[in-house]
Amino acid sequence: MSLSLQPRRNGNPTLTPARDDRPHGVSVIRNQILENDLLHVFVTVVDQGGFTAAARTLHRTQAAVSLQIKRLEDIIGVSLIMRPQRGFRLTPEGDLMLDYARRMLALNAEALRTLRAEETDCTVRLGTIDDYVANILPPLVGAFCRSHPRVNVELYGGMPSSMLTRIGAHFDIVIAMEPAGTSQGQVLRREPVVWTTSSEHNQHERSPLPLAVAPPGSMFRHWAIAALQQSGVPWRLAHVNSNVSGIEAAVRQGLGVGVFKASTIDDRLRRLDESDGFPRLPDVEIALYSIRSSPSSPTMRLRDYLVERLGDNSGSD
């Protein structure tokens, strides 16, 4: 018994038993696997417009190409190509098989790319906020690189808002800090933002209040100034630095009051709240963004590793 393609009621063809026109005694090949080489030859014949051109492309004889097409037809049990005296054209079954063949070859290529992703050296570009570059990510990235020695991770610090506009072109992964409730990435954690002063100085009691902040464009700078103005607290700029470590150093030395994520404050800084006359500030979310990639690619492996280690359920606070 052979199989033929018959239309379903919804218009899509399906393989169904058909009348066996083979001579008596000719057995039907069953339980065969559609080999990629046969599918490749079939697609090449179609794309090249004939057996002769396909043979040249495949560096095989025309007879070998014809034999492989015949073998594919024998495995399936239907004719794929009509062979008039001049040229050729696909049968309805051939049209359907062509779609399957292209998809199967594409899936085969994707599987090879995915499974071989770690066989060659590659680079993953990771951008994030300054305090993550300085304190949090180095030990995590170091551990990842030791377990993936052929993956090079480039770590960049800066303004994640600008990094997000360049994801894909200049960055593969970006860990950004955004106002709570606004992130469209993978939220890793939510953190309070707090006022801080030196544990050894009283700059928070001065008027106008000296501020140690980042340059214009900084979210924390904007929140701090807006909150002070709304509360009627006079202020002045005492220290402006684009690096969060520099701002922390200025606050520790008593140059001004700063605004930081609560998780970054050590015993050299003291938190200030409403009881000290400072208005409450909004929370932030730490969120991860990444390019689309196959699940086992180095980028996705690093992404999943960071989500596991930095997420709220990671116990890494």
UniProtKB/TrEMBL annotation:
Residue ranges with Polar residues bias: 1-15
Gene3D superfamilies in alphabetical order: Periplasmic binding protein-like II (3.40.190.10), Winged helix-like DNA-binding domain superfamily/Winged helix DNA-binding domain (1.10.10.10)
Species this chain originates from: Methylosinus sporium
Stretch list, region Disordered: 1-22
GO molecular function: DNA binding; DNA-binding transcription factor activity
One Pfam family, short name: HTH_1
Designated name of the protein: LysR family transcriptional regulator
Entry keyword set: DNA-binding, Transcription, Transcription regulation
Domain HTH lysR-type: 34-91
Protein family: Belongs to the LysR transcriptional regulatory family.
